């Protein structure tokens, strides 16, 4: 979905997510996930992962304030550029397995918000 070295998202509970303006369009039609885009500029705005219906992944670049945000986890590191080294607390070659999600959410809830290291 991204031609960049990064695809940054913020995972939020689906029940707390509300679109306040406009009506996004579905795009990126490969796979089961529903990727939503701005109908005007076609920027990727958020994703509803089918395997995790309780969350919405919002593209970090869509947020107004990100200065106090640090990454907690990285995925798809099996494909990352060799010189990239992020200060994260969890790292996965692909995506976490379903049985890892509960412990990940628990670890995230205990996290102090600071980069690893």
TrEMBL record:
InterPro entries according to UniProt: CENP-V/GFA, Mss4-like_sf
GO MF annotation, one: metal ion binding
Keyword hit for Zinc: yes
Residues in CENP-V/GFA domain copies: 2-75
Keywords from the named record: Metal-binding, Zinc
Top-rank taxon: Bacteria
Coiled-coil regions, chain positions: none
Family: Belongs to the Gfa family.
Name the UniProt record assigns to this protein: Glutathione-dependent formaldehyde-activating enzyme
């Amino acid at each position: 979905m991204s031609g960049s070295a990064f695809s940054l998202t913020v995972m939020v509970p689906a029940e707390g997510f509300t679109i306040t303006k406009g009506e996004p369009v579905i795009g990126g039609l490969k796979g089961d996930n529903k990727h939503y885009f701005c109908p005007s500029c076609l920027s990727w705005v958020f994703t509803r992962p089918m395997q995790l219906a309780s969350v919405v992944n919002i593209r970090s670049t869509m947020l107004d304030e990100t200065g106090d945000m640090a990454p907690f986890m990285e995925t798809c590191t099996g494909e990352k550029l060799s010189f990239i080294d992020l200060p994260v607390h969890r790292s996965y070659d692909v995506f976490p397995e379903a049985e890892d999600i509960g412990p990940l959410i628990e670890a995230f809830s205990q996290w102090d918000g600071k980069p690893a290291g």
